[in-house]
Please model this.
Amino acid sequence: MAKLLLEIGCEELPAGACREAGEQLPVLVERELGARPSALFVGPRRLAALLDVEERTPDEWIKGPPENLAEKAAAGFAKKHGATVEELASREGFLGLERPGRPLRDVLPERVDAIVRGLSFSKSMRWDESGIRFSRPVRWTLAKLDGDSVVGETSFGHRFTGGPVEIPHAGEYAERLRGDGVEPDAEERRRQTVAGLDAIGKWSDPAGVLEEVVFLVESVTVLEGSFDERFLALPERVVVTAMQSHQRYFPLGGNRFAFVANGGDADTVRAGNEVVLEGRLDDATFTFERDVQLGIDRLAERLGSITFFAGAGSFADKGDRLRALVEKLGGGEASVEAARLAKADQASELVREFPDLEGHIGAEYARLAGYPEAVCAAIDEQYLPDAAAGPLPQTEAGKVLAAADKLDTLAVSFSLGHKPTGSRDPYGLRRAAIGLCRLAVEGGLAIPRELMPDEVREFVEERLEGLIDVPVEYVRAARTGRPRGRGRCAGARPLAAARGGGAGACRDARPGRGLGVGRRRRARRARGRVGARAGDGAVLRGRARDGRGSGGAGEPAAPAARRAGHARAPGRPLTDPALNNRAELFEAHGALPHPWVGIEIPPATRAEPIHQFVPCVSRDRAGSVNSTRRSRARPRSR
Amino acid sequence: MIRALEGYWADQGCVLMQPYHTELAAGTMNPATFLRCLGPKPWKTAYVEPVIRPQDGRYGENPYRFQHYFQYQVILKPAPEDVLDRYFESLESLGIDLRRHDVRLVEDDWEQPTLGAWGLGWEVWCDGMEITQWTYFQQLGGVDVELVPAEMTYGLERLAMFLQGKRSAFELEWAPGVTWGDVYRESEREWSAYNFELAPVDALEARFDQHEQECRSLVERRLPLPAYDHVLKCSHAFNLLDARGAISVTERAAYIGRVRTLAREVAQLYLELESEDDGEAAA
Model:
């Protein structure tokens, strides 16, 4: 056995590329070199692996045609493998070629090349005529078998303080680099960063920049800085965003922050970073003061000249529609006032600089103007939930306004033909629809179905199918019509209502049992079959759900449908003749209609809280292969 | 500072160009970059480019935002293997001690939708300040580049602020006893007024159409260089309309699409002519 070091030296890789490479490298190394790495080093300028290998590649038997076809096939087979017929051997009735193993050092160059070419990145580039695609240019490769350099000669140290680094033996790789001021191990850099931050004080990282910072440096120096206290007059989140998103700093509270440098003289680097942050805050203060001088009401007046969406009027029009919707949703005075001011910050300069803080900036301006807290909080919460698993608005007015905002965006986008197709959803409509469902299902907000145009309702209800924990066919049955003679899921029924335990209770109670992708896919398959049966609602699929009210006193005898479901062969649609009639279907589940879908939920599960919601759809595929989108929110232009 | 950069890059074999004669929103749009980076011919250049971004004006009141500022643009095509080292050496030629400062390359991928162009690269940070945008072009005018060029765009005001330790561009010493503000503040005020309040929307829309038409007819006559100027003029008209708030989100996409189409046609024509020339030269 020998120790093999493999190092791919690159120009500075982005953090995302480091993660991708870190996942693929062990698999590629095993494929090409026959062993998993015993250690992996991933950083911005180098990807490296250490492994124990045999010094010869294993003997190979290349199986050829059966002996009885030798006349016809032997020559062709031999030629294909660059051998003569005489070299062929025979084993177990088949001709074949014995390829003795080769010294590893002979094949290493091509294997290293295959590993480099085998790594794939969501964004990759060419840089020379080699045709290799990589996240950033590869500038050196090094392979050492114990003490011998097989590919390349040396490694390289820190970009500015180091030079070529001799690695006398593969096993001394990390040690030698450390001697040159480079920490090749990402885990160790993370540990050092956290330890350094802890030593400075109570740090926070709401935007999660730590994971990026670990891959931004090769040598960890944690430094502390501060800014002038006058900037504390800015909304805190503006300051935090400037620190985190723009500069990758860690707020320490008050006017202090910590950051990680890759080297340099501590005082010089600190002073420079302080100037930069103050510059950004100065810039923010400048725009903030201009906005505040105008005040939120004047900003709101300017909305008439800002287009919300071509064909859907201005933000002022949007505000009018929101007010109407809020009233229809039963919102109180605070939500109506909040609807009037909701989009005012779109006219502010600060939102142009900090687009992620829309809503929040408006809320801050409303606070400065002395509006009641209920109004300000609602403005703040209008975009929630802004991620599939993100938090919901906490205030009543906030929920109403958030729902109104999503209803309007959906209605407007659909009416203009901007429907999501496949994975393309540039306006985030899936997210909006799911948010709407969650406001209903989890937030307990009653959202009358007639507030949605048909197309939108279809779309939202499709999302709901995935969200609530009842077999998708039941939902579909309820959606396609009304149970005969009952009228229980009449169109005017709210999407979900906050009564009697609410639809929110119908979720599986165990954490992690949300809507997994697999389940969603099953649902989609099932739906396909339903479609073939013209939606008679009686095509069922089984689902074993041990957590769901099993043994609960109130649960009806396991419905025939479910029993049958357990028994059915996977992948085959199931039809239970006994339930062919939708009315009977609902009957079988007892008398209580689900507030929206018109079917009953076993009482045993009603009181169970929701633990977790797992996103099932709507992940924008930003930055897919070679897309020209940039990684962060706004493309830089020049 | 500019002299130091000119000296350094001239020594590296760059052709020193002068700023282009029509409004550009970036040094990249100068034909010395955009067109010369197409095709199989090596090219090295360096030049100062005043960039005009009507949207970014702040009436000379904000010390960090201007509708007119300077970039120093360097192109090495193809990018040599030690291109980053050469760039870092240029910083040293400006007197930046790379061992005392924290210089870092932070992921920043570039795209210019109006030109159908994109590339991967970084922002170069020096003690947290972005001093250069660094890009390996991959596509220009919708065409894959043949030799991958490295583009280095230094933000001259930023760099000067860093070197002079100034917190406002207006305080920069632009020449002995003369500040940047002395030279440009009034112009920022006046141009901001024009860009945001007075630029004539109807006339600009008409101008955009005219330039588009002229570009088309020049492409038909197989004159890519003059045609490209009209792409630039379209782009500037669009930027002004944008600053006037006269463009909605969807219109915006349509305008960008129109400019991109022109840029693509010009790029393709330029490549065609170049390969024809080569054919003749060979014959």
